[in-house]
Description:
This protein is an alpha+beta fold. The chain has a domain at 26-89. The chain has 2 helices and 4 strands, in the order αββββα. Strands 1-2-3-4 form a 4-stranded antiparallel sheet, with no helix packed on it. The protein is elongated. The termini are far apart. Pfam families: CDGP. Residues 28-96 form the CDGP domain. This is CDGP domain-containing protein.
Amino acid sequence: MKHCIVGGLAVVLMTGGLIDAAPPANAGCRYGGPGVINKCDGPIQPDGTWQRCVTFANWVPHGASSHLVPVKQCDVLGPNHPPRDIAFADPPMRIDD
């Protein structure tokens, strides 16, 4: 019986340690900004580049029920890949760095 309790306690402590070591849910993303919903960077590729996706709020006029629609655009950034738009240029380095 003692071995079961000690074993169960060890599993709980190890699981808690893994959860504490996990990166935060927003790692690699920034939220908000003028006209921007979020910016997220993908993993670094072997050539040092990464993909940044920016989601913009796009106003869609539709009479009295006009609304905002999210529009996602992605671009490759990194060495020898300058950003094509100011929205992709900020920040100039990877977001999770």
